[in-house]
Amino acid sequence: MSNKNYMALKPWYGTWPPRIRxxxxxxxKSWWETQRxxxxxxxVFLVGIIILLIxxxxxxxxxxxxxxxxxxxxxFIVAGLxxxxxxxxxxxxxxxxxxxxxxxxxxxxxxxxxxxxIYEQSILCIQHIQTSDLRPIQDNPDICExxxxxxxxxxxxxxxxxxxxxxxxxxxSIFEWFHKGYSSDILSFxxxxxxxxxxxxxxxxxxxxxxxxxxxxxxxxxxxVTITTVMKTKEVKHTSDLDSWAFLYPTKNPQVTIKAYEGxxxx
Length: 267
Prior knowledge:
- The structure is a single chain.
- This protein is of the alpha+beta class.
- Helix content is 31%, strand content 34%.
- The protein is built from three helices and ten strands, in the order E-H-H-H-E-E-E-E-E-E-E-E-E.
- Strands 1-10-2-3-9-5-6 form a seven-stranded mixed beta sheet, with no helix packed on it. It has a three-stranded antiparallel beta sheet with strand order 4-8-7, with no helix packed on it.
- Helix 1 packs antiparallel against helix 2.
- It is elongated.
- The protein starts with a strand and ends in a 7-residue tail after the last strand.
- Mean pLDDT is 79; it is low at 1-27.
């Protein structure tokens, strides 16, 4: 046990979602170019206020058709407010539609759905740290104990409060492999946010074919808030078995470390 080999492996899938490379010479619009319509509409709004004040002055002094001037001022105010609001809404919609149209046009039909799914993601795993510790079973060299610790940090990258699913069948379950005298188990499952202390949600569920899972819970995550889950498991597997995991949310910066004992081959 003292001569363990420590191997840090880089996952074959790399970083997900893919990073978007920025062109060095990409032209950036100035603040004036992006906000000039809004500023213009604000100017129209101010002109309407001035005209409205003039109409009140005409009414007090009983000079001219103050009602007509008053209506013109109201028209300018309404035009300014509507123009500024519609400009902001259309700008966001056009940017979104342009992205969807451009990316969708470049992709074959079979991949458009996947790109739409990626674009609509609101929860992102910004850090994944996984350690798999293989330990021998002295009376049976064909099987071993696999102790796994998975720490995942999620962030709400949207502008709205979103529900994040913890536990369940994605990244919150293992299997019992029915080796005589040995059993698999979920040892712990906790989560903590950057505004709350750690909480345990270790309520196990047992399904068909040896499935062992943590009961699914939903937690509300505000924009910019992170939540970190830590799950510890023990599985008894053949030394030639494959260990695979699937998760519900896209992952970036995965780090996987395997601790293998002497005499076992790990890849």
